[in-house]
Amino acid sequence: MRKASCVAIIIFYVGVLSLFAHKEAYKEQNINKKRSKIFFYYVQLEGARIMEDTSKDDKIALGDLLPQEIHGWQATGKDEIYDPQTIFDYIDGAGEVYRSYNFKQLLARRFTKEGSPDIVADLFDMETSRDAFGVFTHDLEGEDAGVGQGSTYNGGLLSFWKDRFFVSLYSEEETEDARKTLYALGKKVASSIKKEGKKPDIVFLLPSENLIEKSAHYFHNHLILNYHFYVSDENILLLNQQTEAALGIYRENDEKSYILLVRYPEIGKASQAYKSFVQSYMPDAAELGLVQTEDLKWTAAKLHQDFIIIILNAPSRFLAKETIEKVEKRIGQI
Predict the structure, then answer these.
(1) Fewer CB atoms near the end CB (10 Å): N or C, the chain?
(2) Is the pTM of this model over 0.70?
């Protein structure tokens, strides 16, 4: 079924390109080559998305991933179920974070043990592994817990992601017994999730050299971008749920800089967003896409196919332009 869907998409787009070629045969050959390259990129990307979406096992019930007892802590009361419309009844301010990552459902289960703090398990079905990874990267503070496909432990809170699920396990008081139980519970839940998911492709386009460990963030929403690096109150990059963005934080010689990549669903949208960003963020740039800010740091921006590449807080003009070129080369290799 998945193979047939991908073949159908390829046949459809090849047919469209063939018809276009007959009508536009007078156009220069190099333009046709460029469009052909972009076309095959989109076919590959769309095929990967179809394969991921159809690989989901929708029969998995969140409650089945959690035990009823762990190290003497017993599940108590009924499981609470929330969706994007009711999540604010459970999580007030943070609810918008999960909504920005397109979560489908949340299950909350409380565990109690006499003389010990309660433990609360929150299981999120994020619908895709891309968004499960993304919401995990929203807060990367803490030590690696060695659970799932990526995890953190910080002050009685253990979080991890695996496949399309994001899991948050919290002890209302941090004790040694509770900490050990959180680790045991996390490993048990992770083992109940049989599949592993795929990280977003855009994250791998961030250069690894000088990237601060556990600093790569994936998101769709400009409010999430502002949480990690403030750009503007307005959505000047025109981010929405159809865009993908990755932000990496870099350190070299005690200088911190940022690389922001945004991928748009089509080249026209990327071009529109690039113009919006340049006009709003660097209107006084002496050179297109390059400006020195008030703190004497440099910002560079470049439109590349359906991507916008932005370097923020670069210590020098040379480094800003060099980094843009490096990222362009990485994109050209996909």
Answers:
(1) N
(2) yes
